[in-house]
Every structure is written in structure tokens, then in C-alpha cells.
Write a structure and sequence with these properties.
254 residues; alpha/beta; Glutaconate Coenzyme A-transferase; globular
Length: 254
């Protein structure tokens, strides 16, 4: 059965309101922009997005934020997106802020079929003890706070240490971007654009990949494959991606 889709719109046609999406990218680097734009053209809402962050205003996931299509976000930081911050602080969306390494491992564990794991990051903080604001009320008070998590002590090379239990993440769909893909779904990512893409891909029950270059099956050297096609359910050739700059810094003339 062919994995090829004729367009980005066709590739995400069955995403419905309330779906959860694991989205690759870091800021605006390696984001599946064509797939996100296709969702923005759909009349769907209440999406739950798991991604490192939500891009910037008007770019990537920032488009879905502007359209008020997102209900909940699991991310490591708000970043440069002022609209993301405004909606979060205004109580319009729920945000579960998660340490970046923990988020990466939660996605990896989800893709590997590991339901939960213990990690030292966050012990002794509200990450483990609970109380982080997930959703604010209109008056600025905390409407929904994070729950406390299980903490256990384990012995090891450095003696007894405390670890917090983190649950894995899986999503209904994964949306990723790759530089090269073949017709079997094997993917090659471009340098830093690799970022969260492989992790998001494995955590999605249905993985949709947009690729800048599509080649026949067998053309990619097996040793060069970053993500095996077994994880990819749909692939769409979108051509060369527009390269956005998240924060432009220009040196002053001396």
C-alpha cells in the first residue's frame, strides 16, 4: 500500500477536532510548515499539541494559535511567541511546561512502548511536587495546577538519589519535516533540523512526513537513514522549505 499523499491537505485530511499532535521542530527550524498550514485551513479546534515550543507569531504552530485551534500545549518553553504567552497568561489555553530533556525522553519512551520512567530532573521543584500553573483563570489566578508526581530513591554509583516518575507521551498523529525521504518513508534530516523530529515521529500512532526531496525506494544509503520507514505512515513531497529566522541579530556598524 503506497504511503504517498498527493498533497499536504490530503495527508492530514482525517485529523479531527480534539486530536493530539506530536510536532517536530525547534522554534522555526525543521518544522512541518506545509502540514501545519493544511490544518490551519481546516475547520478543526481543541487540538492538543506536543512540541518543543510553538514557533513564532504567524509561522508554524503560531498559525494554529492565531486561529484559536489549540486547546492544550505540552512544551518546554514559550519562546519568542508573544501570542502564545498572551493566550497562556490569559487563560485561553492550557500549557504543561516540561523540562526540555524530559520532554524528549517522554516522546522517545512513548515511541519505544515504555509507559513511564524515573528521572532526576525536577526533583525538589514544582515539576515533582506539583503546583505549576497549567491554566490560568481570567482574573489571573491558577485555575488548573499540575499534580504531584511519585518520587522514589534509588542507589547507584553516586549513592542514593531521588528520582521523579514521568509518564511517556504518545499522540494520535505525528507531523514531521525531513530533507529527504523515499517512497517507503525512510527519512534523512538536515543537520539541526533533525531536533525533535525523530522523537515526535515515533510517538505518533500515525506519522505524517513532509519532505523537501522525494526519491525512489532504495536510493538512500541505509547507513544514512535517520528514521526508518517503519515509523512513517504517510509521506508528501512539499519541495524546498522556506527557511525562517526566529530572531534576527544584526551587528551595529562601528
Amino acid at each position: 500500500m503506497s504511503k504517498l499523499c498527493s498533497s499536504a491537505a490530503d495527508a492530514v485530511a482525517d485529523v479531527v477536532s480534539g486530536s493530539s499532535l506530536a510536532v517536530g521542530g525547534f522554534g522555526v527550524c525543521g518544522i512541518p510548515d506545509a502540514l501545519i498550514e493544511a490544518l490551519a485551513d481546516r475547520d478543526i479546534t481543541d487540538l492538543e499539541v506536543i512540541s518543543n515550543n510553538c514557533g513564532i507569531e504567524g509561522v508554524g504552530l503560531g498559525i494554529l494559535l492565531n486561529n484559536k485551534q489549540i486547546r492544550r500545549v505540552v512544551a518546554s518553553y514559550v519562546g519568542e511567541n508573544a501570542e502564545f504567552a498572551r493566550q497562556y497568561l490569559g487563560g485561553e489555553i492550557e500549557v504543561e511546561l516540561t523540562p526540555q530533556g524530559t520532554l524528549a525522553e517522554k516522546l522517545r519512551a512513548g515511541g519505544a512502548g515504555i509507559p513511564a520512567f524515573f528521572i532526576p530532573a525536577g526533583v525538589g521543584t514544582p515539576v515533582a511536587e506539583g503546583g505549576l500553573p497549567w491554566r490560568y483563570a481570567a482574573n489571573g489566578s491558577v485555575a488548573v495546577a499540575s499534580p504531584a508526581k511519585e518520587v522514589r530513591t534509588f542507589g547507584g554509583t553516586w549513592g542514593d538519589r531521588r528520582y521523579v516518575l514521568e509518564e511517556a507521551i504518545t499522540a494520535d498523529y505525528a507531523l514531521v519535516h525531513a530533507l529527504i525521504g523515499d517512497t517507503d518513508g525512510n527519512l534523512v534530516f538536515d543537520k539541526s533540523a533533525r531536533n525533535f523530529n525523530p522523537l515526535a515521529a515515533t510517538a505518533g500512532r500515525i506519522c505524517v512526513a513532509q519532505v523537501e526531496e522525494l526519491v525512489p525506494s532504495g536510493e538512500i544509503d541505509p547507513g544514512a537513514v535517520h528514521l526508518p520507514g517503519i515509523f512513517v505512515d504517510r509521506i508528501v513531497h512539499t519541495g524546498r522549505q522556506t527557511k525562517h529566522i526566529e530572531k534576527r541579530t544584526i551587528a551595529q556598524e562601528s
